[in-house]
């Protein structure tokens, strides 16, 4: 039985739900146009975005900015897709996505605003289905069908277009949010999820000109094709594994060269220890440690094509590092330790790794923060809330990376449960947002204490074999990025895992 059938057992049930909302709308018709007036009540809408002319991603960012200025409050973002053109095929590849939003604009007012944005961004009439810098379509408006001379909602060709259905479904959860979403499901005879499955569903991602991507640096990264290895560079005197080893610029750069030569895809620079009970240093001290190494790293010829992330929970450090050339912000607090972080990251337009942690490094292992009834469910729920907060600050879901926070406010058994339960965590997030659940997942078990407890290895540097085993389990269980100290051995482990996954039929989200 499809999930739609489980949650919407009868058309009668929907009809009753719809009837209770009729009083908030008035319908007025004229000879040339049909309009609907909304009596100052907010309505939830879905708007599709497409672009294949110029800087496609910048076009999206500009369109989102203009929508917000026009009274469209964006609440959720779909993933980002690069797609082959439909109907008129002799044109560049498109970027496609969609957003959910709240607005008090009536449907025709909303249409007028979107057309104005398109025009201001350089769209002309041109060829139907032809190239355009931006295309903004109303897919759903509240709970109502609209059919006028200038507007049809639901958009008339939704059901035949994978490049529309994929981002639309991202905006849903496997659970029904409310009566509005219930209504959206009813617009399709079999419900949106079943309609998407009939178009190919998740099995079509990565095939037939439809790939899910994350924008980073100057490229669109399809993280599903291979597992990425992130090499750890601790620029601290007190990190639990290698504190003090790389506290000079020279030794740090030598380590960067070594990790790159061993196959690291990403170098993660951290200048503040987040080990249990670590003392917090100031923004300036962190910058003094970080920036000289970041600048020298960017000068290395071999860093070409590699990504640099900055491991920080300070918004000022994130901003300065990105301005110097860092590509990714990696925040162990998910925006909880600096109230400005999420707003700053939204403006930086870079990927954001949001990690699950309770408390801060000095309190994360206290008894209160270690209480879980169901660790995978609670980590999924709490991690989603951080991503939700980021979205409301303007960080699109297509820029988010999920990190369940192995070793942070977790007991040994919790860490093991997470390693075995990455799909479960995705599933819990997917109850609220299928798009967020499809984001890349990063795990960081490297040399952590739980490996020492399981393997009876007191010294962190003796835990590399346990790390390889943890990484192997995580990759086969759905991780897309692994964060490690020992790059060489873990690159080999990841290559084998990827080969096994390819033979077994790799999923876009594993």
TrEMBL record:
Keywords: ATP-binding, Folate biosynthesis, Kinase, Magnesium, Metal-binding, Multifunctional enzyme, Nucleotide-binding, Transferase
Upper lineage: Eukaryota, Viridiplantae, Streptophyta, Embryophyta, Tracheophyta
Family stated for the protein in its record: In the C-terminal section; belongs to the DHPS family.
Protein name, per record: Pterin-binding domain-containing protein
Catalytic activity: (7,8-dihydropterin-6-yl)methyl diphosphate + 4-aminobenzoate = 7,8-dihydropteroate + diphosphate; 6-hydroxymethyl-7,8-dihydropterin + ATP = (7,8-dihydropterin-6-yl)methyl diphosphate + AMP + H(+)
MF terms (GO), sorted A to Z: 2-amino-4-hydroxy-6-hydroxymethyldihydropteridine diphosphokinase activity; ATP binding; dihydropteroate synthase activity; kinase activity; metal ion binding
SUPFAM superfamilies: 6-hydroxymethyl-7,8-dihydropterin pyrophosphokinase, HPPK, Dihydropteroate synthetase-like
GO cellular component, one term: cytoplasm
GO biological process, one term: tetrahydrofolate biosynthetic process
Cofactor(s) required, per the database record: Mg(2+)
Domain Pterin-binding: start-end pairs: 227-495
Classification via NCBIfam families: DHPS, folK
Domain of life, per lineage: Eukaryota
PROSITE patterns with a match to the protein in the record: DHPS_1, DHPS_2, HPPK, PTERIN_BINDING
Pathway noted in the entry: Cofactor biosynthesis; tetrahydrofolate biosynthesis; 2-amino-4-hydroxy-6-hydroxymethyl-7,8-dihydropteridine diphosphate from 7,8-dihydroneopterin triphosphate: step 4/4; Cofactor biosynthesis; tetrahydrofolate biosynthesis; 7,8-dihydrofolate from 2-amino-4-hydroxy-6-hydroxymethyl-7,8-dihydropteridine diphosphate and 4-aminobenzoate: step 1/2
């Amino acid at each position: 039985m499809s999930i739609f059938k489980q949650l919407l057992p009868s058309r009668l049930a929907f009809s009753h739900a719809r009837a209770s909302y009729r009083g908030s709308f008035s319908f007025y018709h004229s000879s040339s146009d049909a309009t609907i007036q909304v009596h100052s009540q907010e309505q939830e809408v879905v708007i599709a975005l497409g672009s294949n002319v110029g800087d496609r991603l910048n076009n999206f960012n500009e369109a989102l900015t203009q929508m917000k200025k026009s009274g469209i409050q964006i609440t959720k973002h779909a993933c980002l897709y690069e797609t082959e053109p439909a109907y008129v095929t002799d044109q560049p590849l498109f970027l496609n996505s969609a957003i959910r939003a709240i607005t008090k604009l009536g449907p025709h007012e909303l249409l007028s605003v979107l057309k104005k944005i398109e025009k201001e961004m350089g769209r002309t009439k041109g060829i139907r289905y032809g190239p355009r810098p931006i295309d903004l379509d109303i897919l759903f408006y509240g709970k109502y069908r609209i059919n006028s001379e200038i507007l049809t909602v639901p958009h008339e060709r939704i059901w035949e277009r994978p490049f529309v259905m994929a981002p639309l479904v991202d905006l849903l959860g496997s659970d029904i949010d409310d009566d509005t979403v219930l209504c959206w499901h009813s617009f399709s005879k079999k419900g949106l999820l079943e309609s998407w499955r009939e178009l190919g569903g998740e099995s079509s991602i990565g095939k037939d000109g439809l790939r899910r991507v994350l924008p980073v640096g100057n490229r669109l990264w399809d993280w599903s094709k291979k597992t990425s290895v992130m090499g750890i560079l601790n620029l601290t005197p007190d990190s639990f594994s290698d504190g003090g080893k790389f506290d000079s610029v020279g030794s740090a750069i030598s380590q960067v060269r070594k990790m790159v030569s061993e196959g690291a895809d990403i170098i993660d620079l951290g200048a503040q220890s987040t080990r249990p009970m670590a003392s917090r240093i100031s923004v300036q001290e962190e910058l003094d440690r970080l920036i000289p190494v970041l600048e020298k790293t960017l000068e290395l010829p071999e860093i070409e094509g590699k990504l640099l992330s900055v491991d920080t929970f300070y918004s000022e450090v994130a901003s300065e590092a990105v301005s110097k050339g860092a590509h990714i912000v990696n925040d162990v607090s998910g925006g909880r330790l600096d109230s400005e972080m999420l707003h700053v990251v939204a403006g930086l337009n870079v990927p954001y790794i949001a990690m699950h942690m309770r408390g801060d490094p000095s309190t994360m292992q206290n008894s209160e923060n270690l209480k879980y009834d169901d660790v995978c469910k609670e980590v999924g729920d709490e991690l989603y809330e951080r991503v939700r907060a980021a979205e409301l600050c303007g960080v699109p879901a297509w820029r988010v990376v999920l990190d369940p926070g192995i070793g942070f406010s977790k007991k040994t058994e919790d860490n093991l449960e997470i390693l075995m339960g990455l799909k479960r965590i995705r599933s819990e997030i997917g109850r609220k947002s299928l798009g967020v659940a499809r984001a890349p997942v990063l795990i960081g078990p490297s040399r952590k204490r739980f490996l020492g407890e399981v393997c009876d290895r007191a010294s962190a540097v003796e835990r590399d074999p346990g790390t390889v085993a943890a990484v192997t389990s995580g990759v086969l269980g759905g991780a897309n990025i692994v964060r490690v100290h020992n790059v060489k051995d873990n690159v080999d482990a990841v290559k084998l895992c990827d080969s096994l996954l390819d033979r077994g039929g790799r999923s876009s989200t594993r």
